[in-house]
Amino acid sequence: MLMQPSKKRRTNHQKKLxxxxxxxxxxxxxxxxxxxxxxxxxYANRFTRLPDEIGNLSNLTELNLCGNQLTSLPKEIGKLxxxxxxxxxxxxxxxxxxxxxxxxxxxxxxxxxxKLVSLPKGIGKLSNLTMLNISSNQLTSLPPEIGNLSxLTTLKLSDNKLISLPDEIGNLSNLTEIFIYRNxxxxxxxxxxxxxNLTTLGIINxxLTSLPKxIGNLSxLTELNLRWNQLTSLPDEIGTLSNLTTLTLSGNQLTSxxxxxxxxxxxxxxxxxxxxxxxxxxxxMVELFDTAKEVVEYCRTHKDIYSIRGRRKxxxxxxxxxxxxxxxxxxxxxxxxxPIELIWIxxxxxxxxxxxxxxx
Length: 360
Prior knowledge:
Elements: H1 7-14, E1 16-18, E2 39-41, E3 62-64, E4 85-87, E5 108-110, E6 131-133, E7 154-156, E8 177-179, E9 200-202, E10 223-225, E11 246-248, E12 269-271, H2 282-291, E13 298-299, E14 305-307, H3 310-313, H4 343-346, E15 357-359
Parallel strand pairs: 1-2, 2-3, 3-4, 4-5, 5-6, 6-7, 7-8, 8-9, 9-10, 10-11, 11-12
Antiparallel strand pairs: 13-14, 14-15
């Protein structure tokens, strides 16, 4: 005898509607009569507009309209004041209505892959927001009101045209990770040093020439990725990032590394390839060899990067971390005093080693 679904289960099922990947050009009128709906998933269709009647569905907690062709949102969307998750990625939105600020319980907002050129001030009213993804738009700036998102933990800003960040970003006291890849930032606001809970900071392929001294205040930071910028130096305060495990500075214009880097006792991975004029100071080198946890990286040429993994670690018991810069016709590294255990390893670049894995 087949078990009949419980009344509660049937009721929950009736509150969810999925019309995804149907090739629909319009949302059926019947949908807007389903006022009991809590979940509505309409992703990967061909909708070009969202009817005003969307405001009838005031019980919605999740609305997914990703992968359509929407160019705007009606003001009536602000009536969905029970939304906790709103997904609008992969549309053609150029602006958001101020009414978006009425989503008082919204926790997750996905706007990746639209054509937004600005954000409304009302976005600062999303007091329960924890996740904001506005990557792959055309933003050149952020409103200062973004600093009001006190519960935000994840902020994704990659692939925009940002030239600066508001100092108010330092008010995001619960932020744990921020990704700002492929923008046009030339500097960071001093307020960045107020992000006391930040564990991951990724600012890849921007135009940074320096870092604020207050970056040393990020006591919980474990990963700092500044690959492909225009950094010429690092502040000594970087040596106070006591929880840092991964430091990526590849593809910059560094000529030296501050000796304070030797104080980073938890550092496991350091990437410095592509800094063609970099000279490693003897003090910080020896300190890192003595304290860091694992062999990290070996660069044979500009294009070939090899990682030496744990299977070889036991062979070099006194060696914990290795900096080997590019050894080719275009650049070379000048090393200070090195432990004798490194002599054979530095010569490794001239031979083939089957135990070294290629990273592509």
